[in-house]
């Protein structure tokens, strides 16, 4: 595939994703128990028009939509970074233990009786705790890829077990709330939560774009990267911390949503070809579209009230993971390994 063809495919994909995101955002602002015309909803988003419309759009629908967009973008970029960093198509924040850490932090605050506003803070702290554990256990190997994967799986399993134990010991009223959060949900998000974690997400996404060149050099392999003057262990640690922060912030906004970080890099690669300078931005766009679309499915297409968005993404993720595993174990793929 030549550069011109690649550029056309990238631009076409970016344009389609932006249009889809705008359409989905408009739908999320206009639909619900009280339907609002699209033009009226967009004006209400800017604070114009009837006070009732402004209240519904600005205080109830917009924070939920923005949380889904920011959380999806963070998961998409985190998944893209991790899969390229590990050179493993099955890598995701789950492998790193970030999901287990975020769940542990959130559930611990729920158990302590903290307000819902502080629960995302606990999720962020738990994700960073998982990263710290991963760094402590994997540092001795120079952050080798295989050691990172195995250590991440162990950290994830241990933290997930701790979360399950806490939920089992909870009173019934707390167990339901904790279980819903650990599945992943953007229900009831407020601007206080969105501005805090969302603002940090913007900074983390900007840092990912800045560090993309180091990721591209690491794609060449450690020997080639070292020959080009890159300190591979330092660069890998920086990118690993960045991916953990992105996934933790996404968990703070939307809970530990599964599938998105796993699937997005494959979607981008399938539609645009090998990684380019635009890959991370496209991954962010795709993740935002996927999570917002999943939340709209939860709100309007499924008959189960209160179903968390993570249930939809997990349902999509199970067959996707099976297909990936079958592709990895096929004779054709082994012959090209």
Radius of gyration: 20 Å
What is the overall number of helices?
16
What about the largest sheet? none
List SSEs in N-to-C order: HHHHHHHHHHHHHHHH
Mean pLDDT: 83
Unreliably modeled segments: 331-337
Number of strands: 0
Beta percentage is under 5%
What would you call the shape? globular
Q: What helical percentage do the residues reach? A: over 70%
Q: What structural class results from the helix and strand content?
A: mainly alpha
Distance between the termini: 21 Å
What does this structure look like?
The protein is an all-alpha fold. Helices cover 79% and strands 0% of the residues. The protein contains 16 helices and no strands. The chain is globular and about 65 Å long. Residues 331-337 have low confidence and may be disordered.
Structure summarized in a few sentences:
The protein is built from 16 helices and no strands. It is mainly α. The protein is globular, with a radius of gyration of 20 Å.
Layout of secondary structure:
Blueprint: H1 3-30, H2 38-45, H3 51-86, H4 93-96, H5 98-111, H6 119-138, H7 145-169, H8 172-183, H9 191-210, H10 212-218, H11 222-227, H12 232-254, H13 260-272, H14 279-301, H15 309-329, H16 331-335
Helix pairs in contact: 1-2, 1-3, 1-14, 2-3, 3-9, 3-12, 3-13, 3-14, 5-6, 5-7, 5-8, 5-12, 6-7, 6-12, 9-12, 13-14, 14-15
Keywords, separated by commas or semicolons:
337 residues; mainly alpha; 16 helices; globular; disordered C terminus
């Amino acid at each position: 595939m030549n550069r011109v063809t690649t550029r056309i495919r990238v631009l076409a994909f970016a344009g389609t994703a932006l249009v889809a995101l705008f359409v989905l955002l408009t739908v999320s602002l206009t639909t619900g128990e009280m339907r609002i015309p699209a033009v009226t909803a967009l004006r209400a988003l800017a604070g114009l028009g009837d006070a009732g419309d402004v209240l519904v759009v600005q205080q109830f629908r917009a924070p939920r939509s923005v949380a889904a967009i920011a959380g999806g973008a963070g998961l998409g970029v985190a998944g893209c970074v991790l899969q390229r960093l590990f050179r493993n198509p099955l890598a995701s924040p789950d492998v790193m233990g970030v999901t287990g850490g975020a769940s542990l932090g959130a559930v611990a605050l729920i158990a302590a009786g903290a307000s819902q506003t502080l629960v995302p803070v606990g999720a962020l702290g738990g994700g960073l705790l998982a990263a710290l554990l991963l760094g402590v256990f994997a540092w001795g190997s120079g952050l080798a890829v295989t050691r990172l994967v195995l250590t991440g799986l162990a950290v994830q399993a241990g933290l997930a077990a701790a979360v399950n134990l806490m939920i089992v010991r909870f009173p019934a009223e707390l167990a339901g709330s904790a279980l819903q959060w650990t599945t992943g949900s953007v229900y009831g998000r407020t601007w206080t939560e969105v501005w805090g974690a969302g603002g940090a997400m913007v900074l983390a996404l900007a840092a990912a774009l800045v560090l993309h060149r180091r990721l591209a050099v690491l794609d060449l392999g450690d020997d080639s990267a070292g020959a080009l003057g890159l300190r591979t262990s330092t660069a890998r640690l920086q990118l690993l911390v960045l991916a953990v922060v992105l996934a933790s912030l996404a968990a703070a906004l939307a809970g530990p949503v599964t599938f998105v970080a796993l699937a997005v890099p494959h979607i981008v690669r399938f539609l645009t070809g090998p990684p380019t300078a635009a890959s991370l931005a496209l991954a962010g766009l795709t993740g935002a579209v996927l999570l917002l679309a999943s939340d709209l499915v939860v709100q309007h297409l499924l008959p189960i009230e209160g179903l968390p968005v993570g249930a939809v993404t997990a349902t999509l993720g199970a067959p996707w993971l099976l297909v990936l595993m079958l592709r990895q174990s096929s004779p054709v793929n082994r012959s090209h390994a």
